[in-house]
Amino acid sequence: MNAHRPARDDAGTMTPPRPLRRPGIEDGTRYMRMMVNLTAMIGGPLFLLTVILHPARDGHDIAAHAQWYAFTHSMEAISLLVQATCLAGVLALGMREFGSRGLAALYTALAGTMLWFGLIVFDGGHNPVTAKYAPDLVHTSKDIDVEGGIIVLAANIVFPLGYVLLALLLNRYGQRLTGLLLGFGGVVYAIGGTAALFGFGPHSMVTSVFEIVGAAPYAVGYVLLGRSFARAG
């Protein structure tokens, strides 16, 4: 007997066949949603914690606490990798739903996150060495070479742009608050991380204020993003 053939109930009416269950795909989607939720819950708060624990930025303080400086940047880099994993999961789950513009927004946010990862790795490795031999050059325009300048410039363009585009995408799908937190937080944090740092100098607290004010809503936005995809499952 054909398993897809409609059955008759006691009243003699036709009942539609039950759809075939595809456990592999359903289980894979469920695990993907769990992964997005878990990485969002880890990546956002860990990022905020590393920003709060960021040591002083002038060369003499970095030279005195080089290991702590390198450690906080390593942990921040890890948090960005976790965030990138979260975005890759969102990208996989929304491949059919978001359309070409939505996918472009997600790809841009993912690329920006990876570029900022590169910036943080470069910062955490380069500045302690420079601080040891020329502390007055650290976090000044005199210490920017072509290679470092490319990383800094690309990250500062693509990172905030990506999260603004992601905010617009989420807004279209009813996640206005999540998008607002990620977009606002990403832009403010990026401004603090470079523009405020070089504008006000490494001794100023303005950079720390900008970064924390940006990282806080950014982290909450990731938590909400993970929860929304967990509920959707």
From TrEMBL:
Region (Disordered), start-end ranges: 1-21
Coiled coil regions in record: none
Entry keywords, A to Z: Membrane, Transmembrane, Transmembrane helix
PROSITE patterns documented for this protein: MFS
Domain Major facilitator superfamily (MFS) profile positions: 104-233
Presence of keyword GTP-binding: no
Transmembrane as UniProt keyword: yes
Annotated signal peptide: none
Membrane-crossing residue ranges in chain numbering: 35-56, 68-92, 104-122, 150-170, 177-200, 206-225
Compositionally skewed regions (Basic and acidic residues) per UniProt: 1-11
The name this protein goes by in its record: Major facilitator superfamily (MFS) profile domain-containing protein
Species of the source: Microbispora corallina
Species lineage: Bacteria, Bacillati, Actinomycetota, Actinomycetes, Streptosporangiales
